[in-house]
Write a structure and sequence with these properties.
Rossmann fold; six-stranded mixed beta sheet; about 525 residues; alpha/beta; 17 helices
């Protein structure tokens, strides 16, 4: 499988500490992201870092990878002090990172993204043929049939995540940091990645792994470290821990994601999807959504579950107007939405929280407040002028209502944790006072605490009469707040369940193997 550098004669034994952070502090003005962290990476092992959004995980990883410099403290590599001036410097020392948010150039090919900044040159120019060959080999190792010349923007999100992973693997590092590498991967892609990780560790490569998929991470972990509020709260070997241990040390208590809200009756049908089909964007003539019908009532929470490729995203995007419906109707409160743009549907009361919040849900160059008010801008426009007091009123109310943790509305959106960024996207859409909200994988890349907050927010909104439809590929989320669970398989609804369904029933209906 993956090629790795030859082991050095002086390298520490497998399991020995190869990289250490000692008393690391990182401050941003008056905010202390890390408060004296001591963290060890073991050679040939997977060290998993658990923690809520905002706990300091990504900050610590950026310091280890040379992206950030510590305010105080030190980094040791093979027992000797090092100070990385940049990520390139760290990479030259054998340390690479796969960032939580994709950092690909969408208009370039897969090949060009993988070799960007380190092209394979010959006396006559770039050796594109060799780059393509190595890219193809990487894709084969990751069991993805992706042509090296395909533009990244033409790939689905999960495939883009695979390209990001392949780029880091191509550097052949001694230490590989993976920050949420599976956030957009299907179950089968995760399985392939875990095989690659085990192959790498067998060759002496050290892995630092961060994931909010706790049960999934337990499968690959050798050493577990929990970071909470900028401090290490617990460390242990994998054989000594379980899911309850992780949750307890992360959030201080063991809790679930909630239950379906009760104490009220559903209203009239808010959303009707009638015999809808959606064509595959590749032009193959196949339907990714095939004559599907579904109705959702005011106050009802419906979960759409399915494996990658089941058609969940395509369904929600077509209903929201992001892609065309080839046949059938979408009705909002009985009104046919045919011909209405995304903006037109938002104005009527139908909104979508997209799967990729970085690309589709947020404007990275804008502030928290500007992002929150963007979808409802029409409510505070007077002629050619904006009513800034009205905008501030909307923004302040949104921050309170969706519980965004921020230093203020004027801070850059990129300064927030993933969970708080997701709440901004949801808050932006709720500020339009919709009748129906669609959420595509609303918990992608956020921790268990932030996930519970998001689901609590959706429950509260449903009690106020909002129809909620959310998709997920995590079966545990289906059994949280949903009144009804709709399982999709190959573009069709294969089964419907109430909140008393079992994991095995849901997985079997999706075509996923059930492990006895």
């Amino acid at each position: 499988m993956m090629a790795t550098p030859e082991t050095r004669d002086q390298a520490p034994a497998v399991g020995g500490v190869v990289l250490s952070a000692r008393d690391v502090v990182k401050s941003y003005g008056g905010v202390h992201a890390l408060k004296g962290v001591n963290f060890d990476v073991h050679r040939g092992k997977v060290t998993t870092l658990f923690g809520e959004n905002g706990a300091g995980k990504s900050t610590l990883m950026k310091i280890l990878a040379g992206v950030e410099t510590p305010t105080s403290g030190s980094i040791e590599l093979d027992g000797a002090g090092v100070a990385f001036s940049s990520s390139t410097d760290a990479r030259e020392h054998g340390i690479s990172i796969i960032h939580q948010e994709l950092s690909l150039a969408p208009n370039l090919s897969v090949r060009d993204n993988i070799f960007m900044g380190r092209e394979l040159r010959t006396p006559t120019g770039v050796n594109f043929a060799e780059e393509a060959r190595q890219t193809r080999a990487l894709m084969e190792d990751l069991e993805e049939d992706i042509d090296p010349l395909t533009r990244v923007q033409d790939l689905r999100l999960g495939q883009q995540q695979v390209v990001e992973i392949a780029r880091a693997l191509s550097v052949q590092s001694r230490i590989l940091i993976m920050d949420e590498p599976t956030s957009a991967l299907s179950a089968s892609e995760v399985e392939v990645l875990f095989k690659v990780i085990r192959d790498l560790t067998s060759r002496g490569v050290s892995i630092v792994y961060i994931s909010h998929h706790l049960e999934e991470a337990l499968q690959i972990t050798d050493y577990a470290v929990v970071l909470r509020d900028g401090r290490i709260t617990a460390t242990a070997e994998a054989r000594d821990i379980d899911l309850a241990w992780i949750v307890r040390n992360m959030v201080g208590e063991n809790f679930d994601l909630g239950t379906p809200p009760t104490g009220y009756e559903f209203g009239d049908v808010a959303l009707s999807i009638e015999d809808v089909s959606v064509a595959d964007e590749s032009g193959s003539g196949m339907s990714v959504v095939d004559h599907l019908s579904l109705s959702v009532r005011a106050g009802e929470i419906v979960c759409v579950y399915g494996l990658m490729g089941a058609g969940r995203t395509e369904l929600l995007e077509a209903v929201a107007g992001r892609s065309p419906v080839t046949s059938g109707k979408v009705l909002l409160k009985g009104q046919d939405l045919a011909g209405l743009s995304i903006a037109g549907r938002i104005a009527k009361g139908l909104v979508l929280v997209p799967e990729d919040r970085q690309r589709d849900g947020l404007v990275q160059t804008m502030t928290v407040g500007s992002n929150l008010s963007l979808a409802s801008i029409g409510t505070f426009v007077k002629g050619m002028l904006l009513s800034f007091p009205r905008e501030r009123e909307i923004v302040d109310a949104s921050i309170r209502n969706v519980h965004v943790k921020t230093a203020g509305a004027g801070v850059p959106i990129g300064s927030l944790s993933g969970g708080n960024q997701q709440k901004v996207v949801i808050g932006k859409m709720l500020a339009t006072h919709p009748k129906v909200i669609l959420l595509d994988e609303p918990s992608r890349g956020i921790d268990i605490g932030a996930k519970a907050e998001v689901f609590r927010l959706l429950s509260e909104s449903a009690k106020q009469g909002l129809a909620v439809v959310f998709s997920t590929s995590e079966v545990g989320e289906c059994l949280s707040i949903a009144h009804r669970i709709v399982v999709m398989r190959r573009g069709k609804i294969s089964a419907e369940f109430g909140p008393d369904a079992t994991k095995d029933q849901i997985m079997a209906a999706s075509g996923e193997a059930v492990v006895a």
